[in-house]
Amino acid sequence: MFYLKYRPRTIDEIDNTRVRSILQKILESKKIPHALLFVGQKGTGKTSAARIFSKAINCLNNKFGGKGKDFEPCNDCANCRAIARSTFTDVLELDAASNRGIEEVKSLIREVAFLPMSGRFRVFIIDEAHMITPDGFNALLKTLEEPPDSAVFILATTNLEKLPTTIVSRCVKVNFGKGRIDDINNMLKRIIKAEGLVFAPEVLHLVAQRSDYSFRDAAKMIEEIATQKMKTLPDVEVFLGLKGRSDILEIIAEKNSKKTFQWIEEFRGSGGDFKNLLEDMLDKLRLQLLIKKGIAVEETEKLNMTAAEISKLIKLLMEAYQLMRVTPIDSLPLEIAVSEFYNVT
Ligand SMILES: Nc1ncnc2c1ncn2[C@@H]1O[C@H](COP(=O)(O)OP(=O)(O)OP(=O)(O)O)[C@@H](O)[C@H]1O
Ligand SMILES: [Mg+2]
Ligand SMILES: [Zn+2]
């Protein structure tokens, strides 16, 4: 899978420019903080960066190892290799999503007392740190107050607000935020180049825009597009559920039930994404509503519906959107919404 195959392995490969330069500065300062906190949305590289950082400070072939000219991990020495395989005794990872209790945290903390065996630092990566229980946080806090010189904690979380401020204030915070479109675009370029694929720049840009600001989602999306051998922008627009977004609303406005259901069936058959479709329909309807109320200027064609009909349809589509999470057939929520709409109008 692309997102695993192209997981960044060096600081330089972290496509998130801001994070890359912060991590570089920390490494160059040679004063490694005892606790780092990586905060950011899903799929922005927190876990990847934690592993790269552990390698960098324990690598035998870079400046930390007294060789080489920079702080990049070599990914080739015994330490780097062992860290990549998760068999390095001085890098301990705790996934707090599945090991959140006091016992798990305690057994990790017991390890803090030991000196590194093969590395320079013992690194304790706590992923999904917001899942730790209050007891666990208390135990951790004591350790963070007086960590041994050789210990480095890296906490990663998507939910900063769920961490006690006492913990947060003891960490150097690195904000991963959301993925920037340009950075995601660069990751996509890196992937397709390595895969020997060719895509129009507009295709990559569209994928980056539609990735929910997540590098992982973008990597998955481009892989699917590549697997399905889509090349052109129109193909990809269909795949992303962007095709004919005005058409479907116009057809619904015509109140032609048969035509509407045919359109949906074709959309499903062509592999369209209903979640994206609903988002776009809602966007468009909201704009139409604002036009009707005289708030927005008319820069798009007017839809042949009354304000009441538009509100009703918005409501039904929002219900359909919620149902997307549970439906076994992804066209079904839209089909129900449309059929209810026709019943009341
Ligand atoms: N900054 C980045 N540069 C390049 N690729 C990235 C970056 N961030 C994420 N990726 C891609 O997304 C995948 C997931 O990244 P990672 O697991 O590090 O994210 P995360 O922030 O820990 O996500 P989560 O919060 O869901 O655990 C990586 O394997 C990689 O393919
Ligand atoms: Mg992660
Ligand atoms: Zn190395």
UniProtKB/TrEMBL annotation:
Keywords from the named record: ATP-binding, DNA replication, DNA-directed DNA polymerase, Nucleotide-binding, Nucleotidyltransferase, Transferase
GO CC aspect terms: DNA polymerase III complex
Family the UniProt entry places it in: Belongs to the DnaX/STICHEL family.
Presence of keyword NADP: no
Name of the protein: DNA polymerase III subunit gamma/tau
GO BP, sorted A to Z: DNA-templated DNA replication
Species assigned in the record: Candidatus Roizmanbacteria bacterium RIFCSPLOWO2_01_FULL_44_13
Complex and partners: DNA polymerase III contains a core (composed of alpha, epsilon and theta chains) that associates with a tau subunit. This core dimerizes to form the POLIII' complex. PolIII' associates with the gamma complex (composed of gamma, delta, delta', psi and chi chains) and with the beta chain to form the complete DNA polymerase III complex.
EC number: 2.7.7.7
Catalysed conversion reaction: DNA(n) + a 2'-deoxyribonucleoside 5'-triphosphate = DNA(n+1) + diphosphate
Lineage: Bacteria, Candidatus Roizmaniibacteriota
